[in-house]
């Protein structure tokens, strides 16, 4: 790495610094020495077997407890085999890396010094740091009040007590400059460089941007069809039947085709065939130190019965209480709507017309605030439940947040549609909620962090006496600047935003067909603003392997099923359809149910007909499985032959 060579020359390091660990400036010296020793110790002694050196700063008023962490090539290769990193072979196939077969892998040369990308190296180092757990220690040295017990994550404990401030991967300014130029520096109607994004940020983030791009393109047909419906068929609900039907088919095909696209990307990136057994316990997981029955490794063990008690006796009641509070806020919103309507009827002025939109705007802001507050509570509860795997933690967190956000964002729309039956208010509320949420998200997630980071950059340049911000900072100053950057919290909020947007577009499409147009416009700006904040605003996040978008796929599919029910019910409740069944409401209900079941059956048939994985990739996976079985048979046969040979030699010795 070019950056590593420069750093080694200027700072006298014997390794390429990849990760920075920041400790509190008043951290006890004994604790620092103990942590550094644990990081350097051999794996068999409970250490991470990594390289670490203090980052010395020129100014005495700076925090001196910054440490640079790296790893030897041998350590990276052994760890890559241990965690099951998949790489491309010379024949184009994808296989789990093994040191014994290292020469069969593409681009493996010069002893493997440049075999892994910087993101992969940083991911490996993070796993080694996260695996540091207490063995015989009962306290943190220098902090007798901070207790430890076998199996407790050391870094997690240090961070919870404020001793460890943060640890993060370093940016590669040269690579980042190239990525920024091809990604967002200029507006262009082209696909995103997903392979480059994956190479720099990892699979999880690249899949998010791939899904965002895919969803934006998929929304364009809906937007093009929705514009004429909005302009020429506003009040004729029966004319929306074709539009709503197309919407329901579109949402199914959209999600099924995405599975195929996702499988192609995951295979190309080596995560589709990665074994799930390699997933290590998450850093926050704690328990009594025991033996994993699958891997035979030492790791914490926690009773699943205790976890279930925490979920059903604490988490579930808390979620139900929050849902009740959300419904209570919703009823206050309807009281505000009645007040605004009464005020408008009395005044009949331009001001009173504007007041009609005020309750919806206030309610949209309250919804966003409640969603964010609940998110913190959900994170605390899910962490307290003590899930072993990160995937399990994410699934439970997503479920909690989705249930609350769905009710919080859409309950008022369902109430207006099926209780008040006020299509005009439904259209107004839907448009206001969608537009307000998009504006707030852009301000809070992109523009505000970008502005704050711009101010930080300006202060650093001013401190160094630089008049232009176009010039690159010295490497030491760049490290300090990155340490002060905000931390990227993952793709959770980004997927949640897309999920709610998908709900606004699909649930009530026959009432507000212009929703897809607003979604496309938002997503185009979202791609560029998200790219900007990833490269310029936040610290570089650690790479995370991912083969798909996880539980979010199920969330989107569930939303598409609900949209079938809501659109069929809305069409069935339209005056034009009701007029055909004036004598019997039962026949109307039966017709709506029949149409709904037919559409649902059609959706599930499409899900069955469209394979999740393309045929060529299925062939490659089957070939890989066959070769693995053949290799295993050959190995067993060889062992059996060697065993028989030893028996014959032993028999000859006894006979002689």
State the main characteristics.
single chain, 656 residues, alpha+beta, 4-stranded antiparallel beta sheet, globular, disordered N terminus
Your description of this structure?
The chain has 656 residues and is an alpha+beta fold. The protein contains 21 helices and 10 strands. It has helices at residues 2-11, 29-40, 73-83, 118-130, 154-160, 173-183, 194-201, 203-232, 240-269, 304-347, 350-355, 358-384, 390-420, 423-463, 475-484, 492-506, 515-537, 551-572, 575-578, 585-609, 615-655, and strands at 19-23, 51-54, 66-70, 86-88, 94-96, 139-140, 143-147, 164-169, 288-291, 298-301. Strands 2-3-1-8 form a 4-stranded antiparallel beta sheet. The chain has a two-stranded antiparallel ribbon with strand order 4-5. A two-stranded antiparallel sheet has the order 6-7. Helix 12 crosses helix 14 and helix 18 runs antiparallel to helix 20 (585-609). The longest helix has 44 residues, at 304-347. It is globular, with a radius of gyration of 29 Å.
Compile the SSE list and pairings.
Elements: H1 2-11, E1 19-23, H2 29-40, E2 51-54, E3 66-70, H3 73-83, E4 86-88, E5 94-96, H4 118-130, E6 139-140, E7 143-147, H5 154-160, E8 164-169, H6 173-183, H7 194-201, H8 203-232, H9 240-269, E9 288-291, E10 298-301, H10 304-347, H11 350-355, H12 358-384, H13 390-420, H14 423-463, H15 475-484, H16 492-506, H17 515-537, H18 551-572, H19 575-578, H20 585-609, H21 615-655
Antiparallel strand pairs: 1-3, 1-8, 2-3, 4-5, 6-7, 9-10
Helix pairs in contact: 3-4, 7-8, 8-9, 8-17, 9-18, 9-20, 10-12, 10-13, 12-13, 12-14, 13-14, 13-16, 13-18, 14-17, 16-18, 18-20
């Amino acid at each position: 790495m070019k950056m590593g060579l420069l750093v080694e020359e200027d700072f006298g390091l014997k390794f390429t610094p990849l990760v920075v660990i920041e400790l509190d400036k008043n951290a006890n010296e004994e604790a620092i020495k103990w942590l550094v020793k644990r990081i350097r110790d051999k794996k068999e002694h409970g250490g991470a077997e990594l390289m670490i050196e203090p980052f010395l700063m020129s100014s005495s008023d700076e925090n001196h407890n910054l440490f640079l962490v790296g790893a030897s090539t041998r350590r990276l290769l052994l760890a890559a085999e241990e965690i099951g990193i998949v790489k491309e072979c010379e024949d184009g196939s994808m296989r789990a890396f093994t040191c014994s077969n290292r020469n069969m892998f593409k681009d493996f040369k010069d002893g493997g010094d440049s075999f892994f990308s910087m993101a992969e190296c940083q991911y490996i180092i993070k796993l080694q740091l996260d695996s540091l757990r207490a063995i015989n220690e009962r306290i943190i040295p220098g902090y007798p009040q901070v207790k430890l017990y076998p199996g407790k994550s050391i870094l997690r404990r240090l961070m919870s007590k404020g001793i460890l401030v943060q640890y993060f991967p370093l940016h590669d300014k040269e690579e980042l400059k190239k990525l920024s130029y091809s990604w967002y520096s200029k507006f262009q109607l082209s696909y995103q460089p997903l392979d480059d994004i994956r190479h720099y940020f990892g699979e999880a983030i690249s899949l998010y941007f791939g899904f965002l791009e895919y969803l934006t393109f998929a929304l364009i047909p809906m937007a093009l069809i929705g514009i004429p419906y909005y302009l020429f068929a506003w009040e004729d609900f029966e004319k929306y039947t074709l539009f709503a039907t197309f919407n329901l088919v579109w949402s199914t095909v959209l999600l099924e085709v995405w599975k195929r696209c996702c499988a192609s990307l995951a295979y190309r990136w080596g995560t589709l065939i990665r074994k799930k057994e390699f997933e290590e316990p998450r850093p926050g997981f704690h328990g009594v130190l025991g033996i994993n029955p699958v891997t035979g490794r030492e790791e914490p063990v926690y009773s699943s019965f205790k976890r279930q008690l925490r979920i059903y006796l604490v988490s579930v009641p808390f979620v139900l209480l929050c849902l009740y509070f959300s419904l209570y806020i919703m009823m206050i919103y309807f009281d505000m709507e009645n007040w605004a309507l009464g005020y408008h009827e009395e005044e009949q002025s331009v001001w009173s017309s504007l007041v009609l939109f005020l309750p919806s705007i206030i309610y949209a802001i309250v919804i966003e605030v409640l969603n964010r507050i609940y998110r913190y509570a959900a994170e605390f509860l899910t962490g307290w439940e003590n899930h072993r795997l990160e995937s399990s933690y994410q699934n439970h967190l997503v479920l909690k947040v989705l249930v609350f956000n769905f009710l919080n964002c859409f309950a008022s729309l369902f109430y207006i549609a099926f209780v008040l039956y006020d299509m005009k208010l439904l259209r107004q509320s839907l448009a206001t909620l969608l537009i307000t949420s998009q504006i707030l998200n852009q301000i809070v997630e992109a523009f505000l962090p970008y502005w704050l980071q711009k101010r930080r950059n300006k202060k650093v340049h001013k401190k160094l006496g630089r008049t232009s911000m176009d010039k690159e900072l010295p490497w030491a100053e760049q490290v300090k600047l990155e340490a002060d950057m905000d931390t990227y919290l993952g793709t959770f909020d980004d997927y949640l935003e897309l999920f709610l947007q998908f709900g606004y577009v699909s649930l009530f499409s026959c009432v507000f067909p212009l929703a897809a147009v607003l979604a496309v416009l938002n997503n185009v700006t979202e791609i560029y603003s998200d790219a900007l904040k990833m490269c310029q605003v936040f610290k570089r996040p650690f790479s995370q392997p991912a083969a798909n978008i996880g539980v979010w796929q199920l969330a989107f599919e569930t939303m598409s099923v609900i949209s079938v029910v809501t659109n069929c019910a809305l069409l069935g409740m339209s005056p034009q359809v009701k007029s055909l069944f004036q004598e019997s409401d039962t026949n109307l209900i039966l017709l709506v149910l029949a149409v709904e079941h037919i559409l649902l059956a059609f959706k599930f048939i499409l899900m069955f007909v469209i394979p999740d994985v393309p045929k060529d990739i299925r062939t490659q996976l089957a070939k890989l499985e066959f070769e693995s079985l053949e290799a295993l048979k050959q190995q067993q046969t060889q062992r059996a032959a060697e065993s028989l040979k030893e028996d014959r030699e032993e028999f000859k010795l006894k006979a002689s």
